[in-house]
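Blinded run. Sample ID left blank on purpose so nobody reads anything into the name before looking at the predicted structure. Input follows.
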Amino acid sequence: MKKLSEYIYKIPRDYHKWGANFASPRGHFNGIQSMPDARLNMGFDVILHETVMEFPHFHNAVEEYLMFVGSDLVKFFDFDAEIELWLGEDPDKLEKYVITAPTIVRIPPGLWHGPINFKRVGKPVAFSAVFPDGDRTEVTRRIIDGKTDYPYIASSLKRCVKDTSKPCTFCGECFKEMAGGDTTYMNSAMEHGMKWTAEVIASEPAPRSGKYDKYIFTIPVLYHNWGELYANPRGRFNGTGFMPEAKIYFGFSVAMKPHPSEVPHLHFGAEEYLWFTGSNLQNMFDFDAEIEVSLGYDPDHMEKFIITEPTVIRVPPGLWHCPYVFKRVDKPVNFMAMYLDGDWAKVTRQKDEKGNFEYVFQGASLKKCVYNPELTCSYCGKCFQDRKNMAAPVK
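Blinded prediction complete.
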């Protein structure tokens, strides 16, 4: 049995060499490279100026979610950019989509996607490629002298160009040396990918068929009733409640003041990753808060951990966790619970009428609005405010 502290990952400052188009340092959680047995690869890259990322590729077994939001999460919907993204089942017939608001894009296995052209960046954009597996992998295409093959790229296999005894950290140093300065392409070692990217952007896209529209989700403006505890409005992606067949569920809750939240619970069948960062992702390490989080293998023996810097907590199935208590909030804190299933669910413990313990299942899709039972609960906080219960759960 692991020590509970092994589920806590302090996000390191990642200073890169990609030039002035990207904020530095950045912060990532790189799956099994960050924590043994982890099932999530994701981080935040903040784009400051017009640039291009990625070449066309697909994932053969795992789906991915591309997230585009404003970098200042206190003002989540203060978004000013134009981003082009190409999607398609046929890599020679990619359709172009234009993103101009906070957006989530679901990429199911086998769907070609890329490049991503940040055509206009009026305000910094936070980009995250959420890959719910321990090792990020992708497949691209290479055509040389009329012969086609499909290079397989895996984070765990990719080695540093300058020192092959070390894993590649995607720092950009090799590109800087080869290209002589700032770059607009992410994978410099694959010349064919760069050329293909340029050709896609310069060419006329395939006609819009509409078949991929279901994978593009514009995050709605959601106002809550939690008062001054959280920034308002906030951004959420409620899994299958927003997009059928989605396999993640998360939201951004930017804590503005000290308060307790949630009750001890566990999840069965899905992992959760609790993120605590500074609220402006352009510098997520500008962090000034103290958060107490309880973890335990049973609800009667919980250990308390204090978070004072950007941190990810892995919550595997069966691990009791919470409450989390924002004891001190001198600067806004981005709290994000990334749940690796489309319907967020938990199991809590309570006493029945005879005083015996029982376990109760609660699912986001099952919970109904107190005021209108025909609607699913949106965790807006109105009913809790009405009952003056400020310690009620927020998800």
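Unblinding after everyone has recorded impressions. Residues 178-189, 389-394 have pLDDT under 50 and may be disordered.
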